[in-house]
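Pipeline run #58 for the internal structure catalog. This entry was flagged by the ingest filter as a single-chain record with no existing model, so it goes straight to prediction. Upstream metadata was stripped on purpose; only the residue string is passed forward. Reviewer on rotation: M.T. Logging verbosity set to normal.
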Amino acid sequence: MAEESKKTLIEPEEVRQRIEALKESSRQMAEYIKIDERRERLAGLEAQQASPDFWNSQSKAREVISATNAERAYTVPFDALLKAIDDAAVMFELAEMEEGEARESALRDVLSECDRADGFFGKLRMQSLLGGRFDQCNVFVKLHAGQGGTEACDWVAMLYRMYQRYAESQGWKVEEYDVQPGEEAGYKDVYFRVEGPYAFGMLKAERGIHRLVRISPFDANKRRQTSFASMETVAEIADDIDVEIKDEDLRIDTYRSGGAGGQHVNKTDSAVRLTHLPTGIVVACQKERSQHMNKEKAMNMLRAQLYEYYEDQKKAEMDRFYGAKSENGWGSQIRSYVFCPYTMVKDLRTECETSDVDGVMDGNLQPFIEAWLQMKASGK
């Protein structure tokens, strides 16, 4: 037992070396992400926000706020990284003054702080992979039930919850635009917007067909069922990007918003559905009580979808942004979620996998997103 106890002792020199390695890595990271330039840009943006006439132009103000959040997405975790390293260094000096079990306990606390620093490194590494033109933008997301009937509709509801949890973990805001309920359970379609720094850059990794294998809760015989759902993402583009939408190309339908009954039931046709006739793109919004506000939000979503549609046409690479429009069924999935006879979530593009199905469904998507971004960055 004594020999086993000695093996678990933490060597102070190893802890010292780890702290020094973190300091060196932070210096390299500062150069790689150009932290000084980012701090300078952030100061300029914050000065603009302090101006008395900042809100005179709503569109310009939104651009400045978006740019500010994008810079803070680097500076905030970098500052937290430096603080964690400094704290670890101070804690290590105090630990060296201790003896016996007290020193051992203090050194474990130092290692915990080093682990926290590694977490901030991971966040910064992730940010460094996001260099696309619209990666820092908000994102419009559509979930659509594929093969599987009621099972597929229920699967869409599960995915919707999963992405809500992931957004919550990132500090992002989710705004539901429109839902089309399934006949028995779940949703046929869900449209929503995610607002936050690099929301599009991260969630574009999720675009594609998601396959579920489980024992059906809707089958009295408890048979195993396979269901499919697609996930599409479109970046919310700035107002200064011109997308022409002719009135004659647009069909506008209004309908009564869904929701709970009672005194709060919507008695007017405030929900709006827009159909762009030349492309067949359809968007809808029923979130607001005002038909005007719903139309404005739907138009923003349509502009974003049309921009990427036209960009795809120019480049003749339709799969670049519309990979999710492949057949919503067998052989097209990007990721499999297996609940039975074993538990596993596996991304078929990157081979990233885990047996922690519950964790993934609770929004732990970071390993899959990071693996995909690294794969794209490597050019594979």
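catalog note: The chain has three domains: 2-128, 139-237+320-378, 247-315.
catalog note: The radius of gyration is 25 Å.
status: ready for reviewer M.T.
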